[in-house]
Specification:
Layout (H helix, E strand, L loop, with lengths): L3 H32 L6 E9 L2 E8 L2 H9 L2 E8 L3 E5 L19 E5 L4 E5 L9 E7 L12 E7 L2
Antiparallel strand pairs: 1-2, 1-8, 2-7, 3-4, 3-8, 4-6, 5-6, 5-7
């Protein structure tokens, strides 16, 4: 027969080991999240200008946004599409590396639609669809995007 102190110390040891496992998993999970670039962090600011309208945007830290940034400055055309966005076709397709579903879609999002190779400037509600990659977010309001029509567009780095 085992003595009570030996039984009690085994319980204490087992309880301590069971408490350590979730803490270790939590720490390892945090380390894994820290190793992946934060795609919500804005890393570079750009200026968007068309039809006497001007706005700025912050780009996310993802491969597609960095590829877009490498193309700047750009002179393009922006035009209305549907009832919630303006689009502009890029001179070449962007990388789709790291693309995937995202949530919290909102007016002001700047996205890339890979199947067509175009930028999408959302001024109305929208839902994620396959092939859509969020590049960043327009600062301030979306009022400049509400001007209807087809215009020359300039996209460049902020000084």
């Amino acid at each position: 027969m085992k003595s009570r102190p030996a039984l009690l110390s085994r319980r204490v040891a087992l309880g301590a080991m069971l408490a350590i496992v979730p803490a270790t998993r939590l720490a390892l999970g945090q380390a894994a999240r820290d190793a992946v670039p934060n795609q919500d962090r804005m890393t570079m600011r750009i200026r968007i200008a068309f039809h006497n309208q001007s706005m700025t945007a912050g780009l996310h830290d993802n491969p597609s946004a960095r590829d877009f940034l490498s193309m700047l400055p750009l002179d393009l055309t922006i035009d209305d599409y549907s009832t919630n966005e303006k689009i502009s076709y890029l001179p070449r397709k962007l990388t789709e590396q790291g693309a995937g579903p995202f949530g919290d879609e909102a007016p002001g999002d700047l996205c890339y639609y890979a199947p067509w190779g175009n930028l999408a400037f959302f001024y109305g509600s929208y839902r994620y669809s396959r092939g859509l990659i969020r590049l960043g977010r327009i600062d301030g309001g979306i009022a400049p995007l509400l001007v209807r029509g087809k215009f020359d567009l300039h996209v460049g780095l902020l000084p």
